[in-house]
Amino acid sequence: MESVQARNFINGEWSSTAETFESLNPANSRHIVGTAPKSSASDVDAAVAAAKKAYESWRELSWVTRAEYVDRFAQLIKRDTESLSRLVTQECGKPINEGRADVVEALHMAQYVAGMGRMPNGYTISSEIAAKDAFILKKSKGVVACITPWNFPVAIPLWVVLPSVLAGNTVVFKPSEETPICGHRLAELFAEAGFPAGVINTVHGFGEEVGDPLVRHKDVNVVLFTGSRAVGKHIQQVASQELYKFAATEMGGKNAVMVLEDANLDIAVPAAVMSAFKTTGQRCVSSGRLIVDKKIEPEFTKRFVEIASRINIGDGLKEDTFMGPLINQEGVEKWNRHNGMAVQEGAEVLIEGKELTGPDHACGNFVSPFVYRFKDYKKGTFCLREEAFSPHVAIIGVSGMEEAVEVYNDTDYGLAMAVITEDYRKWRWVRDHADFGLGYVNLPSIGAEVHLPFGGVKSSGNGHPGAEGIIDSVTHRVAFTVNHAKEIAMAQGLSTKF
Ligand code: NAD
User: Fold this and answer.
1) What is the pLDDT, as a whole number, of residue 147?
2) What is the value of pTM for the model shown?
3) Which superfamily does CATH assign the domain made up of 4-251+461-480 to?
4) Which of 21, 175, 374, 378 falls 20 to 30 Å from 198 in CA-CA distance?
5) Whose CA is nearest to atom 14 of ligand 1?
């Protein structure tokens, strides 16, 4: 693929900056996927001004008319599924099957949002007074900043951009600096779909130079952020300085698969492998912890380690690759750091992961799985509590369901969990006592669908899950009451005499 020159898209016009940065293929650093503008606060100002201006006319359109723009966009995603999938794989390293799943998820979101245009955007509700009609309406908020991570570079932007514009808001989209070319391609498709100038603006660049001024901008009403806990916390703190500004932040996780005593290992082992190694452990819902009842732990571990030792690691464009590279060298350093901590904290290393340097791996950020065991749980262990965002996986022995959940909950995060059991009473107990936003039974801890809420609790999210529920984050729910009588009657028996 030829190297692409990404540009900003502001007020319907393409532009660049004097300085640019490169986006490298994580499987082969000699392949420059493209270059992108290294924007600054003045580009943010221009994009927000364009969005603010466009808001005045965009909000006047009906939900159905706005949905038609989204529908046109959905058709373009469908048309370009194959080329987008390859781009995802080349820019963020996922195996092509996962690149395709990213784009299909994006398509599903576009279809879902287009359909939402014909769904209720409010409802009537009775008043205490028979002659009054009361309504609850969802009204747009204004300019929405969409700040997104690299690991789902096509799907996640659409989770946030499309519901925002359907509801009548306008958008400034800041793609991840790791995947600007995917962001640029989306901007090209927004333009081709015919969204009016200023409705969706795209500004490329880095967190501190573009993301931060965007969050602080006085004319940004809503921030929809998906990314790490540290940045999400910072954004919440900045946004809270203005009373009118709202930030929904979806962040990381330290997820787990809990394998209970009665589990079917033919489900438990593949569920654990997928949870641990899909996207090279770089999903927010990846499981770095396999919490296994001691009664079956030896057999589970034997089978898990056997598979983890022989998975295919390589360039994602090869059809037989199961695990691609890490996104960058910082990711490799973080993986090394967490491995070192596990050893320091007394883990028994079962597979000593390595940085791969052979002929197929020399120019990429490839590592093999690091798998370790704690026969007993030690409360507060760093490597069992913090997100490693890599193939760094602990097997932890526990005695019974209650201890499994206690171990699961011993982290500040609360995003995704899976429980493997044949006993409906057990999964129900786990459901009611584990802290999570996404729960699965006899499945991996991964597998989002766009019509389900997607978000975490505790430090994983601040209670505004994406996907299905995002319209609530980008609208005000307003009450609107109409009197049909010839005189005024008030609720609560309030007197009208004066
Ligand atoms: P990141 O937090 O480093 O970056 C995310 C985005 O924030 C990028 O666009 C970045 O440029 C921007 N940013 C960075 N500093 C900023 C600042 N000071 N102000 C404003 N914006 C700033 O995350 P990442 O490395 O791209 O993604 C990985 C993280 O995202 C992991 O922790 C993962 O668990 C999480 N994630 C969460 C979800 C979810 O839905 N909960 C989904 C995917 C990824």
Assistant:
1) 98
2) 0.98
3) Aldehyde Dehydrogenase; Chain A, domain 1 (3.40.605.10)
4) 21
5) 207
